[in-house]
Amino acid sequence: MELNILTVCYLIGSVTFILGLKMLSNPATARRGNLIAAAGMTIAITGTIFLYKDDTGNKLHNYAWIFGGILIGGIIGTLAAKKVKMTAMPEMVSMFNGMGGACAALISIVEFSHIGNNVVPGSHKLLLPEGGQGIILIILLGVIIGSISFAGSMIAWGKLNGKVKDFSFKGQHLFNIAILLVILGLATYLIGWTPANATIIFFLVFALSLLYGIFFVFPIGGADMPVVISLLNSFTGVAAACGGFLYNNKVMLTGGILVGAAGTLLTILMCKAMNRSLTNVLIGSFGGGAKAGPLGKKEQGSYKEISISDAAVVMSYAHKVFIVPGYGLAVAQAQHACHELEKLLEEKGVEVKYAIHPVAGRMPGHMNVLLAEADVSYEKLLEMEQANEEFPGTDVVLILGANDVVNPAAKHDPSSPIYGMPILDVELAKTVIVNKRSMKPGYAGIENELFYRPKTSMLFGDAKKVLQDLIGEIKNL
Amino acid sequence: MNSVLNWISANQQMIYIVILMIFIGIEVIGRVPSVLHTPLMSGANAIHGVVIIGAIIVMGKAESDNYLALVLGFLAVILGTLNVVGGFVVTDRMLEMFKKKKPPKSP
Hints:
- The complex is a heterodimer of chains A (477) and B (107).
- Chain A is of the alpha/beta class.
- Chain A has helices at residues 2-24, 30-51, 63-83, 89-115, 133-160, 172-193, 198-217, 225-246, 250-273, 278-283, 292-296, 308-316, 327-332, 335-347, 366-373, 384-390, 409-412, 463-476; strands at residues 304-305, 320-325, 351-356, 381-383, 396-400, 431-436, 456-460.
- Chain A is 59% helix and 7% strand.
- Chain B folds into two domains: 1-30; 32-107.
- Chain B contains five helices and no strands.
- Chain B has helices at 2-10, 12-28, 37-47, 51-61, 67-99.
């Protein structure tokens, strides 16, 4: 009876996961979808705690430990997720993903410890567990994928908050492939020969997988982290599914594989939004790969600056102004000031719109979330294609802390690392004002010739301060 | 060879689920607009937190003298909960910001 109820719990869980994911991919239902999946998860977890029985019919014990762990994790998780700033959300997702990966790896380690020391008496072979080599394979997969996901996510987290710098050395790709081959070789040996010293080999595989995770993410540029996180996210899904095989648990299997498949597709979609291939992202190592090309054009002459008061005049006498937000806006937390400027200009009869590049900021959708927080109307946010159509009739484009997404090198310089990425054609407008903190190149580490064009003027300073000054200036006009 | 075939037939139900889930996973998010990439990723991130069920089973089966299993299982439960709870809360916070401006678009 109890087990049948548990089966129903798992069934509900699996269905809500599918439903939730489906609803999450539509703006109108996304939030409800998330809550439905959360409800299903709660049912599945509660059911497991109280109803689970193992093959011999024993119920779970150690309730104090289980509830203690859930309480600690729940409190920390809620606080961290509630307190995190909008700009740091991508890091947070990466961090949580890493936790999931580590959880899967730990499960594998414990399960292996049950079988790793049973040697067939008088031989050098491991005593095969019930389920045979298949079980060893699943345990190994769980520990390999889980550790790669954990280590990789931690590096991605460090990169996004600036604690870890891009790092690559000559032949790193060969080095990575070598590690991977050693991992696979050891795993094959362990499964095929089941030697008595299995525990040592198992922990070697574990350590190498962590190492691989680190070196896998190290050379990939910070700007590509969203793609990497999405990929690691699908890895963790597969690691969770391994647990499903291990415990013959359908909800872990469905949830894990679902995320594994959807996550892989999502990764590819993200790459497509940047017009790049996944291999290009993983092997191309942004920044490090920036060869002599852009450097050769360093002598692009000088840029010109514009004062706050001039910028205020230009904008308030324009008919149509486009704002191009970027990471700089997010860092400066200037979204509210930005909305205020927009309202002020509209009062003066200026048409104001936002041009949102699909990968502006640190994650796709980053800018939409940020501007929505400041109550910017949804209709004012134009996607790249629409914005590019409207730029020719625009008087002023104000770029707030965006760089690579408006770099014309992506269109005509095949040697540029971002060549081929679709960009916002801000040069079609009459004037371009660029707000940046300094002339330092953007996240991809490449020069932007846009800043040296005759149409462009630079407005240096922190986005929030500059916007506030602009607002004050326009009010005084 | 024989053992592989045996393994497949012993686990055929699971293998069916895997294959069907791959197709569902791909089908279900096939038409997501790029605006929702981040929340969707975050939501999927929370869903793979089902690993926590494995962690609970490990923890609940651990004998009271098996300190390795107790300690690692406990850690796994904490980490898994972090993944689940944190994941859903962050996703909800992201989507909360969309919601306010959504009504004019949906009928």
